[in-house]
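User: Hi! I'm working on a homework problem where we have to compare a predicted structure to a textbook description. Could you give me the structure for the chain below?
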Amino acid sequence: DPMKPGSAGPGVPGIHPVIYDEEGKEVQKGTKAGNICIRNPWPGIMQTIWKDPDRFVKTYYAKDNKDPKSKKWQDWPYFAGDGAVQAEDGYFRILGRVDDVINVAGHRLGTKELESACLVVPEIAEAAVVPVADEARGRVPEVYVALKPGIQASERIEKQVIKELETLIGKIARPKSVRIVPDMPKTRSGKIMRRVLAAISNKMPVGDVTTLANPEVVEQIRVMVQGAGPVETATNVGEDIKKFGQDER
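Assistant: Happy to help. Predicted structure tokens:
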């Protein structure tokens, strides 16, 4: 099959992908996003987790199983942990890790897709998108961007980011706000710590940031978002937000 930009393609011979929604129902082609799974076992598939087989089953197989007593492999689809959508032509597009997908009023938006749209704005060097709780839509994206050297922050840039998100993805991707920050909190290897930004946006503890390459920027961003005074820590934050970006190292 020919390659298609932005797509992982159809399943290769012997691998049969399928997309299920949160209720375990199969999602039809060309409709909506869901969780990508593999219907069948294949050569080379991981067999277990050392000394923790129950965790292995719970993590990769229990989610979409309908009969825990079944011995048939057809009843145990493999949960890959990625959000995806399948086009009418059968090609799959991976949206990102399930923990990094934002569910906005029932629409699943991949953070990588949102960040790529932000980077279309020529003044932007880096972008990070995190989920924020919203009474009307459940979750909404909040955008953090760092500008290229010599570029001054402006309302025009913020509006341009919103325009690109709405143009490339749709009105559903409109963020709660666009935050222009002096730098992104990063590990020493240069990876953006989105969990820290999500914690700031949702008034959660940021945890230990002393091992970051630039720990001082965390407080600068916190003051920009929350203000200089003390802020009461949120106590009713959803589990999806708490887990967001937790696999970052």
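For your comparison, note the following. The mean pLDDT is 91. The longest strand covers residues 124-134. Good luck with the assignment!
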